[in-house]
Amino acid sequence: MFKVNIHEAKAKLSEFIEAVEQGERVVICRRNRPVAELRAIPATRTATRPLGASVPAFDVPASFFAPLPDDLLDDFDGTAEHAPDIAVAKRPASPYGEEPVRRRRRSGR
Predict the structure, then answer these.
(1) What are the pLDDT digits (tens) for 26-53?
(2) 4: which of 8, 15, 25, 104 fits an S-S bond (Cβ 3.0–4.6 Å)?
(3) pLDDT, tens digit, for every residue of 16-26?
């Protein structure tokens, strides 16, 4: 790690970036007080993570990929004969009639 002032950092930025790529850390100072730090960004993963690596004893059964029964699918659609009627809650009426339209004030007035 080494410290440089802003003027030197501007003049030699490409040199400092090369040093950072080699593992160095560069602290940038203003009037000899640290204000920023240049450091390398960790490399991104190029290989995919193995599926299920954290739980090696877990096996997905073949029945997991089997299609669902029709009566269960009907429950999702709401078209089943035994599907309960669901009432949608409505907003209570205001005692003052319809609510007034609220307008936004223009800035700069």
Answers:
(1) 999 999 999 999 999 988 888 887 776 6
(2) 8
(3) 999 999 999 99
pLDDT of residue 103: 64
Picking from 2, 8, 36, the residue whose alpha carbon sits closest to that of residue 22 is 2
Which range has the top average pLDDT, 41-45, 52-56, 77-81, 86-90?
41-45
Residue 48 vs residues 40, 45, 53, 62, 73: alpha-carbon distances, Å: 22, 7, 11, 24, 34
CATH fit for domain 2-38, picks 3.30.450.20, 3.40.1620.10, 3.50.90.10, 1.10.3210.10 = 3.40.1620.10
Q: Residue 74, exposed/middle/buried by CB under 10 A (0-12, 13-18, 19+)?
A: middle
Check if the beta carbon of residue 23 is closer than 8 Å to that of residue 40.
yes
